[in-house]
Write a structure and sequence with these properties.
Blueprint: H1 3-14, H2 22-39, E1 43-46, E2 49-52, H3 61-68, H4 79-86, H5 90-100, E3 104-111, E4 118-121, H6 125-135, H7 139-147, H8 170-205
Antiparallel strand pairs: 1-2, 3-4
Helix pairs in contact: 1-2, 1-6, 1-7, 2-3, 2-4, 2-7, 2-8, 4-8, 7-8
Length: 207
């Protein structure tokens, strides 16, 4: 199981033609990888520091790559620093890996969540697994998707789910909170740059 791959596929499945910010998704993917490493005890948290665990062999190649990328000497890396370092261009890495594995195919209907390349989700067991976790209301997947603006379906009467999924693992909750803060920070940077660019452009319009 790869939460990051499932998140990427859900981003494409739920918002075809709309898109998710590449930077937002990259941060969430890095968080998803860390959550999977915590699950197999390849890492643990000491406060917000990532402490490498014992040897493990994740079945997913990108999660294995993430394990190898952990800082293994004290002082250990904080979750926030991990997100920004590991998350750099991570959405592109997942797109490339999924396309190479035949999970994505070139087509005309679906729009990649963060660009102009047209790709379609192939109907594969991997896609069905991601959909199954999503439709079952798997708490971690839903929480990560929510951070990047993808909301789970509501109940038939339009209200909230009767039993809204709750993440109970403390370490996972910490990671999710840091991912949310990082995405918020990234959006603040975007807005600041937009304001600065608009101000600069106005300078040249002054007669």
């Amino acid at each position: 199981m790869s939460t990051a791959k499932d998140l990427f596929l859900i981003a494409m499945d739920e918002r075809p033609g709309v898109g998710v910010g590449q930077g937002d998704l990259s941060l969430a993917l890095a968080g998803a990888e860390l959550i999977d490493l915590l699950a197999v005890q390849a890492a643990s948290l000491d406060g917000d520091s990532i402490v490498p665990g014992g040897p493990c062999e994740p079945h997913d190649e990108l999660v294995a790559e993430a394990s190898e990328a952990l800082i293994r000497q004290a002082p250990y890396e904080g979750v926030e620093d991990w997100l920004w370092r590991r998350g750099r261009e991570l959405s592109t890495a997942y797109r490339t890996a999924l396309e190479a594995a035949g999970q994505l195919t070139r087509g005309r209907r679906a729009l990649l969540p963060f660009g102009n390349d047209r790709l379609e989700l192939a109907e594969t067991p991997v896609r069905r697994r991601a959909r199954s976790r999503w439709e079952a209301g798997e708490p971690t997947l839903i929480a990560l998707a929510s951070v990047v603006g993808i909301e789970a379906s509501r109940s038939e009467d339009g209200g909230e789910r009767a039993n809204e999924p709750v993440v109970e693992d403390e370490a996972v909750t910490i990671v999710l909170a840091v991912v949310s803060d990082a995405v918020t920070e990234l959006e603040a940077v975007r807005q600041r740059r937009s304001i600065e660019n608009a101000a600069f452009a106005n300078v040249w319009r002054v007669p």
